[in-house]
Amino acid sequence: MKQSPFTSNILLSQKMASSPLQMFLTCLLLLISICHGQPSFRPSGLVLPVRKDTSTQQYVTAINQRTPLVPVNLVVHLGGQFLWVDCDNNYVSSTYRPVRCRSAQCSLARSNSCGDCFDGPRPGCNNNTCGLSPDNPFIRTATGGELAQDAVSVRSTDGSNPGRFTSVPQFIFVCAPTFLLQGLASGATGLAGLGRARIGLPSQFAAAFSFRRKFAICLTSSTSSNGVIIFGDGPYRFLQNTDASASLRYTPLFINPVSTASAFTQGDPSDEYFIRVNSIRINDKPISINTTLLAIDSEGNGGTKISTVNPYTLLETSIYRAFSAAYIREAAARNISRVAGVAPFDVCFSSSNVFGTRVGPAVPYIDLVLQGQNAVWTITGSNSMVRVNDDVLCLGFLDGGSNPRTSIVIGGYQIEDNLLQFDLAASRLGFSSTLLGRQTTCANFNFTANP
User: Fold this and answer.
1) Contact, 125 vs 119, CB < 8 A?
2) How far is 169 from 151, CA to CA, in rounded Å?
3) Predicted pLDDT at 14
4) Which of 146, 203, 232, 363 is buried most deeply by CB count within 10 Å?
């Protein structure tokens, strides 16, 4: 783990066990802190645009932060613990406040460090402040950073259009050094963490505006149009007045008891989103896999998570081999010819016998049979096939290795033009499968603002 000026002077303090009363008081104090000075306008939801970066295949959103407000581009990290931004490079704000040691905000952030920084005072470097470990999962690097608060402004929404801007005056985030931006999309100055953590964006927005700890994400496959993230409950209306929430099916979200972050305290659970895949079918035919890999064990290994960090789905080696072999057989039965692989893909096909449909290339369907009644996530050609050139289509699933931490990682490409609703309060995932069959896409949210 690389060091920043803040981490070089951290003084570790012992993490104290919290009683239920202490936790209640901590949450109450945080709610008061976040809501202090909040205007009377209470939106039912908030909306952020999200675009796909062509060169990195990362998903990028934007918020307004600081005083005076400036636009801040952030890479979306679905399982990220919190918002972190680069504070080394021209961070100027009259409302920046470091979070002091042993404060309610420090406890809520699960910080077990208290430190001094002798290069300040300045944003990201102050004495007697709490520290956390911002990480960049794209380069697998973490460092130390100062916990802080500052103003954040985003647009409200009724689920159909953006509305007026609204602000959280004391939004908690972490300052990071400039080197942590390595590998991020051009122009991005931090990461937007949408994970389960109490200082993740979903929880802080819900606390600030008293709506349910719930958000939906709809990533577009287009690099020229925006997808959308909506905090709060539905509806989620797209052009043609299509309410995408009407087609949701539901499956439980599971908590991995062991953190999957780059840096964490022993005993912390993961803040990423895990689901249970019970079986996988190709053209309605189950494939034979070791089902013990599909459950999370006591050490936090196995299971299935959803990720915006990985561009394509990763499968543990034995699952991948069974999956790809079955897919090749089903493709051959349709007279779809296999051709040489094109990196990073091993399984590729000639497009000459593949026709286009509303839901992508006419190829075998993939069903992820999830926990719950009728909880079948169908992956059509739009999310299974990657067109690498005019003549070749490749299966957008990769070998994740023989001993990965997580057996199945559902990547960004597989969730594009799918609406996913994460209900943190109910610990439930709503999923639509592809919206293309409903004659809409994630790029069809109407970003024309209401006055």
Assistant:
1) yes
2) 4
3) 34
4) 146
